[in-house]
Amino acid sequence: MTDNDQTAGRAADLTIALVATEASGDRLGGALMQAIASRVPGARFVGVGGPDMAAHGLVSLFPIDELAIIGFVAILSRLPSIFRHIRAAADAVIAAQPDVLVIIDSPEFTHRIARRVRAASSDIPIIDYVSPSVWAWRPGRARAMRAYIDHVLALLPFEPAAHAKLGGPPCDFVGHPLASEVERLRPSAREAERRAANPPLVLVLPGSRTGEIRRHLSLFGEATALLPQRCGPIEAVLPTTPHLEERVRAATADWPIPPRVVVEAENKWAAFRQARAALAASGTVTLELALAGVPTVVAYRVPLIEEVVGRLLIKVPSIVLANLVLGGNVMPELLQRQVAPEPLVAALAPLLADTPERRRQLDAFARLDQVMKIGAANPSEAAAEIVLDHAGRRRRG
Predict the structure, then answer these.
(1) What is the mean pLDDT of residues 181-190?
(2) Spans of all domains in the chain
(3) Distances from the Cα of 269 to the Cαs of 26, 123, 286, 291, in angstroms?
(4) pLDDT band at residue 313, thresholds of 50, 70 and 90?
(5) Does CATH place domain 182-371 in 2.170.190.11?
(6) Do 3-175+377-396 and 182-371 show the same overall fold?
């Protein structure tokens, strides 16, 4: 940002609209607001958000809990309410005439708001914080976004190239939120000693959704029961969420190797820092494990209809986020009918010893700091710089 941009952006009446409708987007929004406020103490924030954004001065137009709808039937029954919220949010942004609008993730909701704002007030810059997965499915969305998105702030390093290839809006990699949290993922000297000690600590991560628990938990339990036959005694740790704790504890109580179930965040991260290997369902957790330096086997099952649709629509070489970031199939992934105890053990056992399989993953993980620009810039600070640049341009215009 130039000195003139900074002067324009620091005007006392600077107004920034933000819309986030999920907890993860609320966290991103709160951190972004904090970064903006540190540069422009008088900035005014309007829009939609949750508790993190409220803590930094946003009075949400409505509680985002009203949009936490699960299940196809439930969504259909709530469509009138959803569209009312979209209209209300767009109308409020148009009335506020902010210097910039930042929509955060949740594209099925936020992009509808962006299109309405662009149609009514074409001079309001609109920034999309978190790129839709145009690189995985529905690639035509990238080009369509040019009509109502001025800039995309990407969390993943390969996304700017994907948007350029697909004809999407200008896109910059600002960094993933995990880049600011590597300290909690990486072991101290004492924790590194525990990682190398016996019995090895194995993380069991069947997922955080009810369906994932139903499809993965018993299979992961059978695999951990077989693992000592190949590797000797192990210690299993299963981090879970409060809403699943009772179910997980009941389901694992009679496992041949009952896992230590942990719910508190600090206990979870301590286990990540001490684990020698992990068996995990696909998700953001694979990137957390890679940053923690934990070699991992990834497994995932979905219902048959979702498998058929996925094979038709999803166009990526891997479903594992860590593999996509690293640019290769580093973590072995077992899908659908491959997710059975014997194949899981066959893939996991080599990761508990000093083997080529383990070294290959660790060598790949060593590239992550450079690939994700960890330590180079705080993601929220980088995002704030671009947001304020667009705000300054509108003021000059």
Answers:
(1) 93
(2) 3-175+377-396, 182-371
(3) 22, 45, 14, 12
(4) low
(5) no
(6) yes
